[in-house]
Design a protein that fits this description.
It is a single chain. With 301 residues, the protein is α/β, with parallel strands linked by helices. The chain has a single domain, classed as Rossmann fold (3-Layer(aba) Sandwich), CATH 3.40.50. The chain contains 15 helices and 5 strands. The protein has a 5-stranded parallel β-sheet with strand order 2-3-1-4-5. Helix 3 (56-65) crosses helix 4 (68-85), helix 4 (68-85) runs antiparallel to helix 5 (93-109) and helix 4 (68-85) packs across helix 7 (143-153).
Length: 301
């Protein structure tokens, strides 16, 4: 067997929820572990305390039953959590062992190639919430790097898929999402300029640690290709696709037309607010010499 592992890492605000709710669950010839829509990609401390460690037998049973709940628990606790920790400056041997053992059991315990899907895999914690600096225990690199490397080291073949959209429209959408979640977390509000300035500060630590990194198409693709064969998709092309699995590179799956499903997790922004937000983001990027590189790196709509 080829032992392929297809990793869909987002990007956030680029049809990830639609894929995880309507497309990936329809896999019949791949073992799919995917983020549940509107649920966190990681487990909380309370969840981990409430359940003992996941054993190889638990993984074998989840593979046999194809239990969405159990596979999602394995994804969040034993794949994404340790991938995030391994993306910090000081990685944990315990988390490395958990990730490697889990991948070995999934890859060699299943008769099918794997699909793993979570947009958290391209994000850092600080970038996710628009903060200006990384926490001491926060990841400074996209977790997909650690995951792809781990897949290769245990004997699998990693493939990365990322959906990319128009950079400015993407930043406007990410900004709106960030504002909504900062309000829920009782964090201070951000203007579009403050949001971009915070992303710039993060990118000075590692270029990929902020949204500015993954909206620069050429840059993020070159970065991802250092870890695995990477398949980029255009956001608008995906929405118009008559065969989502073929576009994702997942052979042997049924033909599924994306347009038959409603838009998911869309954030309502008035045309006026969208226009002023876009103008402020463009102005701030231009002032800091980032607008031209982002525009020049654009490959998809």
């Amino acid at each position: 067997m080829s032992h392929n592992v297809y990793i869909h890492c987002g990007s956030p605000r680029a049809a990830s929820t639609l894929l995880q709710k309507h497309i990936i669950p329809r896999c019949v010839n791949h073992l799919a572990l995917y983020k549940q829509p509107f649920q966190s990609s990681v487990t909380s401390r309370e969840e981990e305390k409430a359940r003992p460690d996941i054993t190889p037998l638990d993984i074998q049973n989840a593979i046999a039953s194809r239990s969405v709940q159990e596979l999602n628990c394995i994804l969040r606790r034993n794949i994404i959590n340790p991938s995030i920790v391994l993306s910090e400056f000081q990685a944990s041997t315990q988390h490395r062992d958990t990730l490697f053992l889990t991948l070995e059991n999934l890859i060699f315990g299943s008769n099918n190639d794997l699909v793993i899907s979570s947009e958290r895999l391209i994000q850092t914690g600080a970038g996710l919430y628009g903060d200006p600096s990384h926490q001491s225990d926060g990841n400074t690199f996209p977790p997909v790097y650690a995951l792809a490397q781990a897949v290769r080291e245990v004997g699998g073949t990693p493939h990365i898929c990322i959906v990319l959209r128009d950079p400015i429209e993407h930043l406007v959408s990410i900004y709106a999402w960030t504002c909504m979640h900062r309000e829920l977390l009782k964090k201070s509000s951000l203007t579009p300029t403050e949001f971009i300035l915070n992303q710039i500060l993060l990118s000075k630590v590692t270029a990929e640690s902020s949204a500015i990194g993954y909206v620069n198409h050429s840059f993020i693709l070159k970065s991802l290709q250092a870890y695995a064969l990477t398949r980029p998709l255009g956001f608008k092309s995906l929405l118009l696709s008559d065969d989502a699995f073929d576009l994702l590179g997942l052979q042997g799956e049924p033909c599924v037309r994306v347009g038959q499903f409603p838009a998911e997790h869309s954030i309502k922004i008035s045309p006026e607010l969208k226009a002023t937000t876009s103008e402020e983001i463009v102005s701030t990027l231009k002032e800091h010499g980032l607008l031209d590189p982002i525009r020049e790196g654009k490959l998809f709509e």
